[in-house]
């Protein structure tokens, strides 16, 4: 369990600092962790402290062989024991542990011996999520090629894509999308990856996801748009990018406020001017089209 003394405000995104409604278990939000893990879930952000704490007392023979990379011993265990999908005392399979420690040959051996690819650890994470979270590229790529499900959500309502976005790993994002990852996957607690990128202030990720056709007008559970989040976080460069991609500036959140309202409340004159100029430009174009529909259609056709 995470110590409260290690809590750092800098670990949190805009989402962690805002109140949420009470969450209930449902198909689109994972069940709460067991009682002993709830404080870790509530105080942790799900991104920091990603490494497994591995102690010999937690492990069975198969897990020890997997972590140490002893292929001959592991092969013998797989032949003599029916334990390939067994979990250790921390709810991790040998595949989880091999992915987390970058033991590619172990991963290959386990998969070729038909281990289950999508079993969950104590935080509802698959081996694929763990590999991507810890930047074990070879392991993650192999699992995708062998059919691991990239759309499984963990306790934080995140998929493998959320962690690839957090790591700013464009190559892994490409691989995930080519293997059927839902770019809009979200939950009650975690928004689509595009909004995660905005909330983390990752301009290059926002730009990359928009190029991959992420929905620019996606909303979170409080109906906040990417623009609203960028304005509240005073991320001017992201605001400019979103306006360039014609985001809806009139979108209302659950409190009936637009991004412009939040900019005004924060007295952010620069962002207010950007939004105002964008609205004027859109209005001017609309008037031009209405006043001369024939030439406008010809212009569009050309």
TrEMBL record:
One Pfam family named in its UniProt record: Ank_2
Keyword annotations of the record: ANK repeat
SMART domains linked: ANK
Domain of life: Eukaryota
Residue stretches of each ANK repeat: 90-122, 123-155, 156-188, 189-221
Cited Gene3D superfamilies: Ankyrin repeat-containing domain
InterPro entries the UniProt entry points to: Ankyrin_repeat_domain, Ankyrin_rpt, Ankyrin_rpt-contain_sf
UniProt cross-references to PROSITE patterns, sorted A to Z: ANK_REP_REGION (PS50297), ANK_REPEAT (PS50088)
Record protein name field: Uncharacterized protein
